[in-house]
Amino acid sequence: MRLKELERDGIIRKTEDEDLVVRWTLTEKGEDTLPILTRLMAFGSKWYAKEVFEDKVPRSLNEIFTKPEAQEIVQRLYES
């Protein structure tokens, strides 16, 4: 999907600040897709590592998501 389609469907929101910098953020609806997308990533990195990674080695979500913000999302998924 393209950004305009995601915006039209209420998944993301476009904001522009006074310096004309455009930012795209998830809406509540968009945030609700995170568990689905993250589980698909976990599935792919485990079962399709040969196609996904150059070294063909499966990885956990914590190995894929190294930034603290991303790890926070992963942690919330495991808690639910």
3D architecture notes:
- This protein is an alpha+beta fold and 80 residues long.
- The chain is built from six helices and two strands.
- A hairpin with a 5-residue loop joins β1 and β2 (22-26).
- It is elongated and about 45 Å long.
- The two termini are 28 Å apart.
- The relative contact order is 0.11.
- The mean pLDDT is 88.
Features:
single chain, two-stranded antiparallel sheet, 12% strand, elongated, 80 residues, alpha+beta
Q: Quickly give the structural class.
A: alpha+beta
Average pLDDT works out at: 88
Strand content: 5-15%
The number of helical elements comes to 6
Shape: elongated
Order of helices and strands: HEEHHHHH
Amount of helix: 55-70%
- Sheet with most strands: 2 strands, antiparallel
How is this fold's topology laid out?
Blueprint: H1 3-8, E1 12-16, E2 22-26, H2 28-31, H3 34-47, H4 49-52, H5 61-64, H6 68-79
Short description:
The protein has 80 residues and is of the alpha+beta class. Helix content is 55%, strand content 12%.
